[in-house]
Amino acid sequence: MTEADELPSERILxxxxxxxxxxxxxxxxxxxxxxxxxxxxxxxxGEIIWPSLDDLYHAxxxxxxxxxxxxxxxxxxxxxxxxxxxxxxxRLGLCQWxxxxxxxxxxxxxxxxxxxxxxxxxxxxAIRKEQRKGVILWKR
Amino acid sequence: xxxxxxxLCWDGQGRDIIYLFREPTPALWIADPDDDIxxxxxxxxxxxxxxxTGEIAGIEIVDFLKFNQWSDLPDLxxxxxxxxxxxxxxxxxxxxxxxxxxxxxxxxxxxx
Lengths: 140, 112
Fold this sequence. Notes:
heterodimer; A: alpha+beta; two-stranded antiparallel ribbon; 8 strands; globular; B: alpha+beta; six-stranded mixed β-sheet; 6 strands; disordered C terminus
């Protein structure tokens, strides 16, 4: 890495110091990880994902995850399709869940060892784009 | 062409996902995956009603160290000025970052 780069945790803490994200939101995300994520989230296909603290910091770089960290659990529980990626140790998951009666969509990249490499809250258009890539490995 | 200040966010070759953000980064954005390049997304700014504003918050590339589809990347109407660099197209900012991530650290270079 170079001096010009930030880790996700460094970016999050900098944004909180600068007042551009609420420190309380970061605390809430850390609490949610400690209470609900670190012990594992079961996927609909039978696997379990154990997001690490580094996974959490990477996840909350997405502001729509930071604002509602419970979306990490909602997305994983709402997994409906797993697709291949260019790396055989990683898979792309497409997710759907409801909030206040409205459908929300997410994409996750999960590791074979049960890590959460990436998560984004996305829209239906993005889901359709992702469904044109790779091959289906599992479908609910 | 507009020039924006930029920052890079990358947590190493394990996760190997890089973000190039405009700074200050708008509060809300959504990752918009490319139609063809599986590893590439544009981060599009949303307003508080979660509608796209047309602005760009940044770029994300997955599997960054291996990424080589530079010529296929779409052009964006912005120049990005990362710390200690001149304003550049985002592709060049990221190419330079990739080269620096591949280079050995100074102490490793001395002992090689």
